[in-house]
Amino acid sequence: MMQISKNIPVVYLKDGIVYEDEACSTIFACEDRCSAAVYYSNQGAEILAIIEKSDSEKEHERNIGCIKSLVLEAEIPVFAGGEVRRFEDVKKYLYTGADKALFLPDRNAEEQEGRTWHTALSEACSRFGREKLIFCSDAATFIAFQKEAQECTGAFCIKDAGMISSIQTELPIYALVSGSDAADQMAKTELVPALAWDDLVTNRDGLIPVVVQDYKTSQVLMLAYMNKEAYEKTLSTGRMTYYSRSRKELWVKGLTSGHFQYVKALAADCDRDTLLARVSQIGNACHTGSYSCFFNEIAKKDVRAVNPLAVLEQEYKTILDRKENPKEGSYTNYLFDKGIDKILKKVGEEAAEIIIAAKNPEPEEIKYEIADFLYHVMVLMVEKGVSWEDITREISNR
């Protein structure tokens, strides 16, 4: 039985520029002034498809870099690909961090030694598994190459949704929509609240304070107020909407500045008289231009960081700073000066030290060696331009 997914938005890349249409005639733009990845993530899309078009290897590499940036910004799964001529093309698409590679067949391209895109598809299937590959084409091309497609891919993307009914397959089929069609047909996610407005406790003015927090970093961004209308509009639109006490009117955050806030979660405190909103922040939250309104430091104690990712991020930033601003006598700069071979040698040595330490029944030695190993791995990461966000995203995709 054929399985049909919801329509998914698609954008096109040409020479590193994101377009709304397959002809690459309309550059992607939205009122949020954010990337396509952020826009579609916040608009309720379940998946974003990215198809790149390139006429040269240089343009192909530029598009690959753009895909990496979009994948990094997306909060939803990303399918990325283009016209495939060789196995390495598929590998590059997946190495951008995309969840799946879109495989567009190039029927006219003959590889060296007589190989065709069929060979590339088979090689990619053997290396990455069919579930990582999606055959993407119009309905007519799919029907012509249905046997090859079904053997080596785990799903299909069809450009002309009206032709889907003519395709017989048990695999999932995604219908690609772009431009205004994407805006019209994309599924919107209306939040269904566990608490109605009347379940909350308001102040004497009928308002409830809302603490707003970045959902990724947990940084507190601002404090605002909601009335019943603002609360219900926030839930129905997905955009944070408040009540302005000074102007005595409803206030959609970002409507003037473009710095919208998209709600990811809402929670009430134990007394139900204060809300916590976890949001995706576009631009800056504060009217001063600061990302957070809370930047006037009053007092601070030095405390040891305990959040694992925060510790690793801070250490990574220190190593990155050493590379960008060398410091005399720094061991980190010594490694960078010696180059990649020295860094790799140290990573290998530290990995071996972990194995030796693991034979010791006491945990202290292995903790020390793992810490040493992670430091040298981070030096390698900085040298190769890989961030912790790249790593955690890759892990979450598995």
Explain what the structure shows:
This protein folds into three domains: 3-185, TIM Barrel (Alpha-Beta Barrel), CATH 3.20.20; 197-281, Ubiquitin-like (UB roll) (Roll), CATH 3.10.20.810; 308-396, Orthogonal Bundle (Helix Hairpins), CATH 1.10.287. Helix 3 links the parallel strand 5 (78-84) and strand 6. Helices cover 38% and strands 21% of the residues. It is an alpha/beta fold. The two termini are 27 Å apart. It has a seven-stranded parallel barrel with strand order 2-4-5-6-7-8-9, surrounded by six helices. The protein has a four-stranded mixed beta sheet with strand order 11-10-15-14, with helices on one face. Strands 12-13 form a two-stranded antiparallel sheet.
Task: Give a short overview.
This protein folds into three domains: 3-185, Alpha-Beta Barrel (TIM Barrel), CATH 3.20.20.70; 197-281, Ubiquitin-like (UB roll), CATH 3.10.20.810; 308-396, Helix Hairpins (Orthogonal Bundle), CATH 1.10.287. The protein has 13 helices and 15 strands. The chain has helices spanning 36-42, 57-73, 87-95, 117-128, 139-144, 146-152, 179-185, 228-237, 308-324, 331-338, 340-358, 363-384, 388-396, and strands spanning 3-4, 8-14, 17-19, 48-53, 78-84, 100-105, 133-137, 155-158, 172-177, 208-214, 220-226, 241-244, 249-252, 261-268, 275-281.
